[in-house]
Design goal:
Order of helices and strands: HHHH
Shape: flat
Number of strands: 0
Oligomer: single chain
Largest sheet: none
Distance between the termini: 11 Å
Helix content: 40-55%
């Protein structure tokens, strides 16, 4: 996950579950000396991946089933 702190709080609240062994890419990049607020898009660019298409970032993720575009964005 990237910048997982708030997502985990919300998921714990609504799903009444615990999380273990989460690898947070934002924390990892900060550990490597990058700005702690480094976005996922900038992290991916730094690692040599293509630009992240953010079209689905603010789409309705509550809607099921997820669209193919949402699934592609999430993976």
């Amino acid at each position: 996950m990237h910048a997982a702190e708030n997502d985990i709080k919300i998921l714990k609240h609504y799903l009444d579950c615990e999380f273990n062994g989460i690898f947070d890419t934002q924390v990892a990049m900060a550990f490597l000396g990058h700005d702690h607020q480094l976005s996922l898009s900038n992290t991916l660019n730094h690692l040599g991946f293509d630009n992240l298409n953010k079209d689905e970032k603010l789409s309705d993720w509550r809607q099921r089933p997820l669209s193919n575009a949402q699934i592609a964005y999430a993976t």
